[in-house]
Design brief:
disordered C terminus, single chain, elongated, Rossmann fold, alpha/beta, 2 domains, seven-stranded parallel sheet
Length: 445
């Protein structure tokens, strides 16, 4: 057997059977079409059998009739012939379908990935839970990168208060909403984070004249806004280009500005700081933030998705400059309270310089309640792994034992090993999906 033992040959055979049997797994939308093909082939076979039988009975005795009788296995019982010819026919049908699928889908499949694996994953994600995530910055992108493997029904609601970097420059020069956070979310939700997504995230070097510091994706969204005539349509078209699993929506279409009252060190009075990018640079303690103009209307589709969600996730991300700008849109906060979904707040792993120095998990929640009121979420998810070393000036956000604490806390190891101040996208997504499926878990107060 060319050095191959019967056991190894049998294992390969059973493995091949199991692989091909996956095409019959419920829910991937294949069996119904196999039934149609089988019915059509059966009717065609019946027609051909009748024709051949008619020729066999009416044709004169010639040399080919004995050969035909032998080929048709007439020396075997009729039931045996049905089983033999039926088995050969079904095998040929499956081989033909498999060959056609391989030929047609090969140009569109990632190298080394099986068609059945891709199809099974697609059907599973299509039936996945409806999840709305609210925030901005890199924390939101990290969460989306993990959730997209569980469901395609994701809506990311993103702040449009950014006024720094490439987004701020485009906002001032073209009068469009800042595309930076939206671009990051689109890239995170892309089903193929390969060359096209890398191009979307590419940032021109600082010595590239007019393009210095700009991201290609920001320019792309800005150009589409001019072509389509609307910022929201530009986001939708960008999502189609990147083959996004889900959608990204702005919290509002109004041109809003984030403003904060900050208490500076060694000063008794508070100062007013305008602009999302300037607030962390003030080196003071943030007392209050708000949007100008006040009470902007929410993007209607964002409200619809919040009310239809199975789970709403707030965070992770910068407390004052990424998460609160969304919740300060009154319709967004009201829709969250009205939703009957499972609502979770993800607390940041570490403090952020210029925003939350010295904050505990409870301090984050108090800030949210002071700005937006209570009853925004049902559960807090926080990190309990504080063993790694953090950069200078950054501290762990810990959970304090307080007797009057109103929210249950689910604590787990959420850190990314190579960058412990960041969430691990796979760990975080799995925990959220498990909590949603169980609606409970080991809680730590």
């Amino acid at each position: 057997m060319n050095g191959k033992t019967p056991v190894s040959w049998f294992k390969r055979l059973t493995g091949s059977i199991q692989l091909h049997a996956r095409w019959l797994v419920p829910g991937i939308g294949v069996k119904r079409w196999l039934a149609v093909i089988l019915a059509g082939t059966t009717l065609l076979g019946v027609g051909l059998a009748i024709l051949i039988l008619d020729i066999y009975r009416t044709a004169p005795e010639t040399w080919w009739l004995p050969a035909f009788s032998t080929a048709s296995l007439r020396f075997l019982p009729r039931l045996s012939r049905v089983v033999i010819f039926g088995g050969i026919g079904i095998s040929l049908i499956f081989v033909g379908i498999w060959g056609i699928n391989q030929s047609l889908l090969k140009p569109f499949m990632p190298q080394g990935r099986r068609v059945v694996d891709a199809l099974t994953g697609l059907r599973r994600r299509e039936r996945g839970p409806r999840i709305v995530v609210i925030g901005g910055g890199h924390g939101l992108s990290t969460l989306l990168r993990g959730l997209k493997y569980y469901t395609n029904n994701i809506t990311a609601i993103v702040t449009v208060a950014d006024d720094g970097g490439s987004s701020g420059r485009l906002r001032r020069s073209l009068g469009i909403l800042p595309p930076g956070d939206i671009r990051n979310c689109l890239a995170a939700l892309s089903s193929d984070e390969a060359l096209l997504t890398q191009l979307f995230q590419y940032r021109f070097p600082d010595d590239a004249t007019e393009f210095n510091g700009h991201s290609f994706g920001n320019l792309f969204i800005s150009a589409l806004s001019e072509i389509t005539g609307s910022f929201e349509e530009a986001i939708a078209e960008s999502g189609r280009v990147l083959s996004v699993s889900g959608r990204v929506l702005p919290s509002t279409l109004n041109d809003v500005k984030l403003v904060a009252d900050v208490r500076l060190p060694f000063f008794q009075n508070e100062v007013r700081v305008e602009g999302e990018s300037q607030i962390p640079e003030s080196s003071g303690q943030i007392r209050r933030v708000w949007l100008e103009p006040n009470s902007p209307p929410a993007f209607p589709q964002a409200i619809q998705d919040i009310l239809a969600a199975d789970m709403i996730v707030m965070g992770p991300g910068s407390l004052y400059t990424s998460l609160l700008p969304n919740l300060l849109v009154p319709d967004i906060a009201d829709a969250i309270r009205a939703s009957r979904s499972f609502k979770i707040y993800i607390c940041n792993l570490a403090s952020q310089v210029g925003e939350t120095e010295g904050y505990t998990c409870q301090d984050h929640i108090r800030a949210l309640e002071e700005h937006c009121g209570s009853n925004l979420f049902d559960l807090v998810v926080a990190n309990n792994n504080h063993k790694s070393e953090l950069p200078k000036g950054v501290e762990w956000v810990t959970i304090q034992n307080e007797p009057d604490y109103d929210y249950p806390v689910y604590s787990a190891d959420l850190i990314e090993p190579t960058h412990p101040w960041r969430h691990d996208s796979k760990k975080l997504a799995k925990i959220l999906i498990d909590l949603l499926q169980e609606r409970t878990g080991p809680l730590a107060n």
